[in-house]
Amino acid sequence: MDIAINITDLSNQSTFEKVFKTYYQQLAAFAYQYVACHDTAEEIVQEVFANVWSKSDQIEIRTAVKSYLYGAVRNACLNHIKHKKVVRQHEVYEGRKPEGYESNFLELDELQGEIDAALDQLPDKCRQIFEMSRFEEKKYKEIAEELGLSIKTVENQMGRALKVMRAALSKHIPSLVFWIITIVQKNLWG
């Protein structure tokens, strides 16, 4: 029974709960086909539902909600697999480091200095939005509400900031990936 075939708006809590209860197990089984780990599959599905709920006022579902959710879970699984591949490549890279490669920490200090310099190049409002998004992990909607701006303005400022950051840090992409993984690991495991 497809209870949600005509649902296009998940901002109603009762409707959302009904959709969650109907599709959660099916989506977890679907995600398991990609990631081959029950815990990871459930985490991915929970994250998809959390994102759908938090952005329910921004999401426009043009197909059946079931199709939308399956597509979102598939994409999340593929992103998870891609992320794991990057982590494995980094581990292989780390394994190939010559002895005394602790100069990575010096490179990270240098990289941090260049990140700070790139941030200083941004206009004040643009830097503030970038820092709120990347360092405080706020959603665009939260930033827009807090600063009294439209979400579109926040998106435009983030695009501008990312363009400047990419240009300034392009030579450090491999180190930047390492830095990001280090920060993520630090945030995950303390």
TrEMBL record:
Belongs to the sigma-70 factor family. ECF subfamily. NCBIfam families: Sig70_bacteroi1 (TIGR02985), sigma70-ECF (TIGR02937). InterPro entries: RNA_pol_sigma-70-like, RNA_pol_sigma-70_dom, RNA_pol_sigma70_bacteroid, RNA_pol_sigma70_r2, RNA_pol_sigma70_r4_t2, RNA_pol_sigma_r2, RNA_pol_sigma_r3/r4-like, WH-like_DNA-bd_sf. It comes from Reichenbachiella carrageenanivorans. Residues 20-84 form the RNA polymerase sigma-70 region domain. This is RNA polymerase sigma-70 factor. The lineage of its organism: Bacteria, Pseudomonadati, Bacteroidota, Cytophagia, Cytophagales. Residues 114-163 form the RNA polymerase sigma factor 70 region 4 type domain. It comes from the Bacteria. Pfam families: Sigma70_r2, Sigma70_r4_2. Keywords: Sigma factor, Transcription, Transcription regulation.
